[in-house]
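Replying to the earlier thread about multi-chain prediction with a worked example.

Input:
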Amino acid sequence: MSFIEKLKPDFWDYRDVAAGPREKLFNFHRMWELTVFLTAGVAFIPLIALAVVDYHVTQRSIASENLLRTARLVSNTRRSISFFFTQRRAALDFVVKEYNFKTLNEPGVLNNILQNLKISFGGITDIGLIDPLGNQRNYVGPYNLLGKNYSEQDWYQEVCKRGVYISNVFLGFRQVPHIVIAIKRILPNGFFYVVRTTLDTGVLDDLLSGFELAGKGDIFMINREGTLQTPSLYHGKVLQKLSLPVPEYAPKTRVFEGKNAHNDPVIIGYRYISDTPFILMVVKHERELMKSWYETRIKLIFFLTVSIIVILGVVVGMATYLVNKIYVADQARIATLHQVEYSNKMASIGRLAAGVAHEINNPLAIINEKAGLIKDLLTFKKTPAGGDRLLGLVDAVLSSVKRAGTITKRLLSFSRQSEISIQPIELKELIEEVLTFFEKEAEYRSIAISTEAPEHIPRIESDRGKLQEIFLNLFNNACSAMEDGGHLAIQIRRKDTNSVLVTVTDDGCGIPKEDLERIFEPFFSTKTKKGGTGLGLSLTANFVRELGGTITVESTTGKGTTFSVTLPVRMERKEGNNVCGYY
Amino acid sequence: MRILLIDDEEELVSTLAERLSFRGIDADWACSGKDALKKIEETPYDIAVVDIKMPKIGGLELRKMMAGKYPDMKFIFMTGHGSEEDFRAGSEAAGAEYYLVKPVDIEELIRKMKEALKK
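Result:
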């Protein structure tokens, strides 16, 4: 039997065909399936629905929170950067407005201004004054740029045109990234001059690198051509081309989801910084940001799986337990029905037997007397002619009457409901007493009888008359099954503390397998031709049951038969013990 | 020894009486309880061998009716129903001491009669 077969509950393959149109009602397998599917369904559907909804809601809220945070970061940083440029521009503006061309052209003044600017703002490398022709008229700084003409340069034309100029980052002569800020002042008489200063981007870099960003975040600035203006952690060095496309212009902070060069999903936030060529960009790795969500997700899925397993286990267990209970109860119901049916049948047979026996007994009595009279006449009157032959015939009639009488007596005892009188009985003595009935027959047929009983067999409480009848029947049965010279063995053993076992074994013809089941049925006999009534064994079984015992039979055709009678040491009187006699 | 055989089957009692006579026992017979009562009124008997189950007046009833008037009369009951134990269980209370199951063995009957007379 496979493992699965062993797991199958008893009701699994059971089909109550006898239930007819109501078979479905007794289909326990179906009942089980229905219970399991319904209960599991009712439990799982809301659970799974809740889990799925929670999954999506949580995921979405975390994702949108990430976008929001990025947007906030971009806005705040933009404010700082705008402030950075506004501040420096305002300082230059102040210088231009406060000092006229002449004053600025004096060597000491410009130097003083540069020193003050350095102290106040830091990161300012040099400062120069340029006349309308593009000639650098005054210069304070580390390079020899005095007298340099800028009129052909783009930035000069730009500042002439717009009044203010902030350059892209470029590498100066020292190969250090710089930004140029230039401001023009026009005097009422049409004369104008430009003040130009170079900013070291280190201050700006420090400003941006001060942010610690979650999720492998990167914050940097690019120009409108997509060249990096500040160093980035993951997207290249200053003045390198950015691997991401330049986002389209938008007047406000914008955040979107995209892919980086490695095709990883990223969140990109950007802002065009007004009045400068810069775009502030924040790039975050979505996967890194969602890490906490992935952990939550695993927990959620684990919880769901464990819940489903537990619920399924409980549902299957409960369904199996309950359906099995119903099945067992139903089996008990069927057994009871069968018992009632059997008892009714037996009671009918009993009543029929009693009626038949009684009706036959009366004519039998008359035949008996008449034959007896004939015999008397022949015996006492000594009628000579053919007297011996007549005597023989009458004897034959009388013996037949005796036989018929035995049958009717048995039929009547089959139907009777007698009281059981309990008394202590020495089983061995009782069996030996019964065996005396067979002494003559055994001697005549040279049948060996052996009785085996250990000393410690307790006295049992039982009904003497019934026990006598039980063993009389069993011995009788054994004797008629055996050929002359057979062997009858009787064994008395203690089975357990509460019962005693008596086995009656013969080495007779045995009982065919197909008859074994029926031998305890009334009127079932294999020796009807030899005068059997078919009531002996059924009566025996009946008596054994009445005495609270059990009887079983084992037989091999041609080898012999063993009847095993188990009797309780103490007999409990039960209501109904003697009511019908059939269980 | 005066004996009365009572059974609703005339064939049975008449034959039984004749058979007893072969064994030197004189017995009268009656075919119903009523008939038996009449006979007992005429001349009392020592022993009544009576069927328990008879129409109108049964054996046990007859015994009850006679008990006061003829306390010495012994009753031997015959029945076509049940075995000896069966009978005892049911009728010991009624005082039936002697009991035979039909078909009756005549020697057994004589033995019981002798036993009854001894008491």
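Chain A is about 50% helix and 20% strand.

Feel free to reuse this layout for your own posts.
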